[in-house]
Specification:
18% strand, single chain, alpha+beta
C-alpha cells in the first residue's frame, strides 16, 4: 500500500470528480468488446493489437467501477433502513461493511485511474556506456550488463546483446542490448541515468578509492505506428566485424552501420556486429534506430510541454548521478528518491526489485499529484 502523503490526500479528494469520467469509459469498453468479435478487426493485426491493449487497460477499471456503483447503491439502501427501529441494528452492521468495501474500491479506482506510461508494455533497447573513469568505468559497464542480465532472467525477460565495444582490460566501452518480454520497459525505465561506482581498483597500489561513471539509456522499442522511416532517410554501410562471435563473423562483411540523415544536425549512427547474418544485423540496427528516433520525439514533446517524465542520462560527469554504488561500504543509494540499501552484492547479482519498486511508487505518487493538480490549474486558467 502507498504511504499517506499530501499528494495522495489531494488525489483522493478528487476521486469523485474522476469517477464522473468513467461512464464514457464503460461505453468505450462495450464498443471495444464488440470490435474484438468483428472479422475486420481480426484481419488487421495492428488494429487488433491496439484494440486488445486498450480493452485490457479498461477491463479492470470498468469492473471496479461497476462494483463501486453496486456497493454505493447498496449502502444508500441500507442507510435508509437505519430509520426503521426493526432493522436498525442489522442495517448499521451492513452500512459499516459496505462503507469499508466502498473505501477499498475508491483506493483501487484511484490507483487504476492514474495515467499510465503508454510504453510500459514495449520491448526495450538498453544502452550502457563507460563515461568518466577510463578502464575502471569500462569494467563497471560490463558488471552493469551482467546485473541487468540476471535481473531480466528473474523476470522472464530475454536480454540479447546487439553490439559491443570491448576494451583491452575485459570491459565494455559501450554495449547495446535488446530486452523482450512482458512489460519490459516498465521493469527497466527507471534505470536511465548516470550510475556512479566508488571503489579501489585492482591496479591501485595506495588503496585509494576511485570514482567512475557509466551512463544507461533505456529506450522503448518503436512499433511501426510510432515511427515513420524510409530507406532514403539513412545510409547503410557493411564491414567486417571486429567483435565476438567466432571465426565466421570475423571473415565476412556481416557488420552493419546505419547513418540516419548523414551530415545533418539530426544525424544518428547505429552499428550492429554481434550477429553472423548481415540481414539480421541490419534488422537489429533498424530496431535501435527507430527506438532512438522515438526517444528523440518523446523528449522534444515533453520539453515543449514542460513535463520531465523521463530522467535524462546526462553527460556522464561524476557530479551527475542517479545512483551510487559504494563498494567499501557495501551501499547503494538512489539519489532521486533517497533510497539506500546496504545489500550491494545482492544488487549486483540482479536483485534490484526494492529499487525498482521504490522508484515505481514515487512515480505513482507524482502522477497522482499531477492528476489532483490538473482541475485546479484548469480552474485558475479559466478565471484568468
Amino acid at each position: 500500500a502507498l504511504a499517506a502523503t499530501p499528494a495522495l490526500g489531494a488525489a483522493r479528494a478528487m476521486l469523485h470528480v474522476m469517477i464522473d469520467t468513467l461512464a464514457p469509459m464503460v461505453e468505450e469498453f462495450a464498443e471495444l468488446e464488440q470490435s474484438l468479435g468483428d472479422p475486420a478487426t481480426l484481419a488487421d493485426p495492428k488494429a487488433y493489437r491496439r484494440i486488445t491493449r486498450r480493452y485490457s487497460d479498461l477491463k479492470p477499471i470498468v469492473a471496479a467501477y461497476q462494483r463501486y456503483k453496486e456497493v454505493t447503491d447498496a449502502e444508500a439502501e441500507a442507510t435508509e433502513l437505519l430509520e426503521d427501529p426493526e432493522f436498525a441494528a442489522l442495517a448499521q452492521a451492513e452500512v459499516a461493511e459496505l462503507h469499508a468495501e466502498k473505501e477499498r474500491l475508491e483506493e483501487e479506482l484511484q490507483a487504476l485511474l492514474v495515467p499510465k506510461d503508454p510504453y510500459d508494455r514495449n520491448d526495450v533497447i538498453l544502452e550502457i556506456r563507460a563515461a568518466a573513469g577510463g578502464d575502471e568505468a569500462s569494467l563497471f559497464a560490463r558488471e552493469m550488463l551482467e546485473m541487468y542480465e540476471r535481473y531480466c532472467a528473474q523476470h522472464q525477460l530475454k536480454l540479447s546483446v546487439i553490439d559491443t565495444a570491448a576494451t583491452e582490460v575485459g570491459g565494455y566501452g559501450k554495449v547495446s542490448a535488446e530486452v523482450r518480454g512482458e512489460n519490459a520497459y516498465a521493469h527497466l525505465k527507471f534505470e536511465s541515468g548516470v550510475h556512479r561506482v566508488q571503489r579501489v581498483p585492482s591496479t591501485e597500489t595506495q588503496g585509494r578509492i576511485h570514482t567512475s561513471t557509466v551512463t544507461v539509456a533505456v529506450l522503448p522499442e518503436a512499433e511501426d505506428v510510432d515511427v515513420e522511416l524510409s530507406p532514403s532517410d539513412y545510409r547503410v554501410d557493411v564491414f567486417r566485424s571486429s567483435g565476438p562471435g567466432g571465426q565466421s563473423v570475423n571473415t565476412t562483411d556481416s557488420a552493419v552501420r546505419l547513418t540516419y540523415k548523414p551530415g545533418t544536425d539530426e544525424e544518428i549512427v547505429v552499428t550492429c556486429q554481434d550477429g553472423k547474418s548481415q540481414i539480421k544485423n541490419k534488422e537489429k540496427a533498424l530496431t535501435v534506430l527507430k527506438a532512438r528516433l522515438l526517444e528523440r520525439e518523446r523528449s522534444k514533446a515533453e520539453a515543449e510541454a514542460r513535463e520531465a517524465r523521463l530522467v535524462q542520462i546526462g553527460t556522464g560527469d561524476r557530479s551527475e548521478k542517479v545512483r551510487t554504488y559504494n563498494v567499501p561500504q557495501s551501499r547503494v543509494t538512489d539519489h532521486r528518491i533517497g533510497f539506500t540499501t546496504h545489500e550491494l552484492d545482492q544488487v549486483l547479482a540482479g536483485q534490484i526489485d526494492p529499487l525498482v519498486e521504490a522508484l515505481t511508487q514515487a512515480d505513482h505518487v507524482q502522477r497522482l499529484a499531477e492528476v489532483s493538480a490538473a482541475p485546479a490549474k484548469a480552474e485558475a486558467h479559466g478565471a484568468s
